[in-house]
Specification:
Elements: H1 6-13, H2 20-31, H3 39-52, E1 56-60, H4 66-78, E2 81-86, H5 89-101, E3 108-112, H6 115-118, E4 126-131, H7 138-145, E5 149-157, H8 177-191, E6 196-201, E7 207-212
Parallel strand pairs: 1-2, 1-4, 2-3, 4-5
Antiparallel strand pairs: 5-7, 6-7
This protein binds S-adenosylmethionine.
S-adenosylmethionine (SAM) binds next to α4, β2 and α6.
Length: 213
């Protein structure tokens, strides 16, 4: 957990207890300021993936593999696999270790590099794509991802409400103006994207869920 909002704390209390490994990953993320998803978001990702029966899963932004654990657990349930991408070598090395310790190594393929370079080289279709990398690049990721979305596929994008500052009327430091404007424009674009239905959920750091129809 990176942003200790009251809502997140309460949602966390409603979750089943998490095992040592996840708690260890959370502490490390907090200590090293790695912005991993909140436990409630991780739990939701797994639930959504399982409900959709998604089998081919793509993640952009592995970091140390915290969200990957939830995705891979979902994949174990559906009989699927996860392909996860990150450009940070050190974090990815940790993710490989954690995923092995979680007993999920056979379900996850790691690819190190810039997603903007790697995505056009990927073939095949994905039932579930989770984007949690550089907020300023979301429009570019989306363009690279759209050809990879399977029929009825689900896209989940994290951090779209950026600490709630994307909501009109929010008060924040002017240095974030550009990012807030970029995210607002991105959400508007996503809301009007032909062939997709969008919902934005106001927990975690804001999750956009788009389904190909
Ligand atoms: C917010 S962290 C991911 C957290 C992770 N999803 C979790 O919840 O456990 C964002 C990650 O995206 C990676 N990243 C940022 N831009 C990227 C890019 N263009 N290509 C690949 N990885 C990128 C960073 O290295 C960082 O580790």
């Amino acid at each position: 957990m990176f942003y200790p909002f009251e809502l997140e704390k309460y949602l966390e209390e409603l979750l089943p207890p998490r095992e040592e490994l996840l708690l260890e990953m959370e502490s490390e993320a907090l200590r090293e300021t790695i912005p991993v998803v909140t436990p409630a978001v991780g739990h939701f990702l797994q639930l959504l993936l399982e409900t959709a029966g998604a089998r081919s899963i793509l993640e952009i932004g592995t970091a140390t593999g915290y969200s990957t654990v939830y995705l891979a657990r979902g994949a174990r349930h559906t009989g699927g696999k996860v392909l996860t991408i990150d450009m940070n070598k050190g974090r990815m090395a940790k993710a490989v270790e954690y995923i092995a310790r979680a007993g999920l190594a056979d379900l996850v393929e790691f690819r190190e590099g810039n997603a903007l370079k790697l995505l056009p080289e990927i073939s095949g279709k994905f039932d579930f794509i989770f984007v949690d990398a550089a907020k300023g690049e979301y429009r570019q990721y989306l363009e690279a991802i759209l050809p990879l979305v399977a029929d009825k596929g689900i896209l989940v994008l994290d951090n779209v409400l950026f600490r709630g500052w994307v909501v009109p009327g929010a008060v924040y430091d002017a240095k974030y103006n550009k990012m807030v404007e970029t995210l607002r424009a991105f959400l508007q674009y996503l809301a009007e994207l032909p062939g997709y239905k969008l919902s934005v959920l106001p927990f975690g750091d804001g999750l956009a869920i788009a389904r190909k129809i």
